[in-house]
Amino acid sequence: MVQMTAESEDRAIAGAVDVFRTLAEGTRIRIILALAQHPESSVGQLASRVGRPAPAVSQHLNRLQRSGMVRRQRDGQRMLYHLVDEHAADLANTALHYAAVHLEDRPTHHAQTR
């Protein structure tokens, strides 16, 4: 980790918490992974790729935009979405890898609470 003052470390940690909150939803992770493979996708294209209704995908895209992970641009009548950079996809892929390797044999959250 880069040397930081206590104040800058606190800001960085708060920012990381916001990133994880944004990614703590399966549809958003699917959208990020879809955009990594298919940059400049419309809401309809993303809805088809992630298997969710377009209005739900649109809401998740708005959240991803507010977080700074996704941008949109107009292409004629359509709005196209793309990742700001590869870091969001890297985080999503790292989380998937971690879950596959480290959480495979653990019971799911729902199984633990029953």
Automatic annotation (TrEMBL):
Record-annotated HTH arsR-type domain positions: 8-103
InterPro entries linked: ArsR-like_HTH (IPR011991), HTH_ArsR_DNA-bd_dom (IPR001845), HTH_MarR-typ (IPR000835), Metal_resp_trans_reg (IPR051011), WH-like_DNA-bd_sf (IPR036388), WH_DNA-bd_sf (IPR036390)
Signal peptide: none
Protein's name according to its UniProt entry: Metalloregulator ArsR/SmtB family transcription factor
Pfam families: MarR_2
Keywords: DNA-binding, Transcription, Transcription regulation
A GO MF term: DNA-binding transcription factor activity
Keyword set includes Isomerase: no
Species of origin: Microbacterium maritypicum (Microbacterium liquefaciens)
